[in-house]
Amino acid sequence: MPQKTLPQFTENYITISIMKNICICLRIHQPLRLKRYRFFQMGSDHFYLDDNKNRSNTQQAVYNNYIPTVEMVERLCNKWNDEFAVSISISGAALEQMREFSPLMIDRLKKLAGHKQIEWIAETHPHSLSSLFDKNEFATQVENYRKLLWEILEVESETFRNTDLIYTPTIGSWVSKLGFKAMLIGAAPLSRLYGSSLHPKTRLLPHTLLENINAMNKKIDEVEENLYCTTIYAEDITKANRLEYELLLNKLAQNKDINLTTPRVVVSNAAPSEVIELAAIQPHTWSQNELQQEAITQLYNLKEQVKQLNNKNLTNAWRLLQSVDNFKPMSLDLTEENPYGTPYEAFINYMNVLGDFRLMLKNIR
Q1: What pLDDT shows up at residue 175?
Q2: Can you give the pTM of this predicted structure?
Q3: What is residue 278's predicted lDDT score, i.e. its pLDDT?
Q4: How many Å apart are CA 55 and CA 60, to the nearest integer?
């Protein structure tokens, strides 16, 4: 196995080599879909998920994308040992559906969790926008995710990834109080560590989201900074192109000028002088039009009623409805096929579900 060499120092000359620290985050997310819910179902049908579709989508993604991806990462870990490192960000929705519909995938993840080169990234359990609306609800959702990660994989996390990589200094301070040392954020002016006086113990790592393997290959070749972070989406890795990704990661692992690392390690090794102040980064796209804004407003207007009732089933249903995947089909710029037909139909479907949920709150009171 090729070994990386450190710069050599002698009395007569100094050989300087700028090591590029590259953090690659493997992202796994499996949306939970709401079923087609008609107006006349309100008051009588309190089950909102499309179980058949969710089961089919999960099992198909596991077979075509997730297992090939996990097998690839395991091969790289075994081949390169400490020369290879990657972080994995897997949503609560994905973990819950894999546990229910694909136990084999859970077994593969448990096996992967035994590799020390992997860092596991935390997030909100329902993949929500709660950080924009309620500090306490946000903290609860993050802790619920941590519990789920430990319950299934027996791993802990020191790095946080907010939904859609949303960041403000205030959100950063909440994340810091939850004990995280690092937080992934959206693209920033410079590829380097950032911070804030509001959360001096939590560092920020800008993340570049690339469309495909070709864009990633080109971007990494052009990197001039000594820190670069990017995400690979497991849904983009298939049996047809898996070899391309594996070749790229092998190339990075054997390059003596590149250090594959994780956010936790980068932050732990950083000097205070390497951190600069950063303002807000809010690239969220699921609350931009009137349909999305109205749906989100109506949902969070129920917050106090849900809290007062303190009913576990109702609280879980309310959190399920917070997933940004419920608002994505309402986007006017959706590129893939809309499961509800049109943004307006997606909005009506969601508001019918929310109408039934509101009736349940009223009846229980």
Answers
A1: 97
A2: 0.89
A3: 73
A4: 8
